[in-house]
Amino acid sequence: MEDGKSSSQSAGKPIRCKAAICREAGEPLVIEEIMVAPPCPYEVRIRIICTSLCYSDITFWKLTVPPACVPRILGHEAVGVVESVGENVNEVAPGDVVIPTFLSECGECEDCCSKRSNLCSKFPFKIHPWMPRYENSRFTDLKGEVLYHFLFVSSFSEYTVVDINHVVKIDPAIPPDRACLFGCCIATGVGAACKVANVEAGSTVVIFGLGSIGLAVAKGAKLCGANRIIGVDVNPDKFEIAKKFGVTEFINSKDCGNESLSQVVKEMTGGGADYCFECVGLASLVQEAYASCRKGWGKTIVLGVQKPGSQLSLSSFEVLHSGKTLTGALFGGVKAKSDLPLLLKRYTDNVDEFVTHEVKFQDINRAFELLMGGKCIRCVIWMDK
C-alpha cells in the first residue's frame, strides 16, 4: 500500500491494457494494447466498466482541422471503478464507483462557489489533448508514441487517468449502463430544461434535433410540466420514438415549403415558443431557434456542438426590440460534483429508453455505425462482458 491510498498491486506502476485509438480522422478505431501511466498528484486512475457513444465523439472523430489531433483516445460518457489515486487525493479511494466528467468542479474558484455558473475558472473547459494540470499525456502505445487525451476523460480505454476535479463518486448500486449516460447526455438535456431554461408548467417547448440530447431535453421539459413539446427533425421516423420521451407534436424541417422553419413554429404556437433548444450544432439552426421564440420572454438554449469557427448572424434590431434571451448551456448548467448525485437519485429510473443498443468493446466501431445510421439513441459499450 502506497501512502495508505491503495492496496492495488498495480498502484504506482504503468498498466498495460487495450484501448480503441483514433489514428486517422473518420477511419475505424483501432483496438491496440497501450500503456497507461500511474496517476500524478491530484489524479485518479480508473478502470472503465462501460462507456456510451455520444455524437460529440463522432464530431471530433471526423474533424480534420484544429483542435483535431491524432492519435487520440476518444470517449467521454462513462462509469468506472477507481484503481488507484495519486497524492493529495482524498475524495475517492480505490474501489469507489465514479463518473469521469468533461467539466470540472474545483469547489474553490468564484464560479464553483456560485450557484449562477457551472463553468470552473480554475480548470476551464477546453478541447484539450492533455491532462489539465500538467499539459502532458498518461497514454503511450507500445512503441512509446504519445496518445492524446479527449475532453479530460478518454473513456475508450480499459483504464484511463482523470484529474480529481473531473471525478464524481456515485452510489455503486446504480446500474453502470444507466449511470454512464449522466456523464453527458442526461445531465445536458435534463439540466438544460430544468436548470438553465427553468421550463414552467403549461409552457410550450420546441426542440430542434431529436437525437439523444434533444430527447433528454424532452424528458426534462415533460418532468417540468410543459404542455406542448414540439420536436423538429429531418427524419420523420424519430417522431414515434420521441413520443415516448414526451414530444407531443412534430415538424419535418424538409416540409416547410416556402415558409421558414421559424414561421411554421410561430404559426403553430400563436407567436412563438416559450423555450427553444438547439440540439444539433448548426449556426443556421440556432438562428431559426432564436427567431422561433416568443417576443418578450422567449428563451433559446444552445446545446449542439458547433464546428470550430462557426459564426452566428443576428439582427441587432431584433435583439434589442424582441426582448428574447439566447444562451449556451454547457453540460446543461449542471455542476458535476454538486448536482450529479442528485440527478442520479431523481432520474436514474427514467432513462431506460435511452439505451437502445449494447456492444462489446471489440465491436466499438459497430456503435459508430449504429449512431450514424440514425436508428440508435445511445449504444453502451461494455469493456468486459
From TrEMBL:
Residues 26-381 form the Enoyl reductase (ER) domain. GO terms for cellular component: cytosol. GO terms for biological process: formaldehyde catabolic process. It comes from the Eukaryota. InterPro entries: ADH-like_C (IPR013149), ADH-like_N (IPR013154), ADH_Zn_CS (IPR002328), ER (IPR020843), GroES-like_sf (IPR011032), NAD(P)-bd_dom_sf (IPR036291). One of its GO terms (molecular function) is alcohol dehydrogenase (NAD+) activity. Homodimer. Belongs to the zinc-containing alcohol dehydrogenase family. Class-III subfamily. This is alcohol dehydrogenase. The lineage of its organism: Eukaryota, Viridiplantae, Streptophyta, Embryophyta, Tracheophyta.
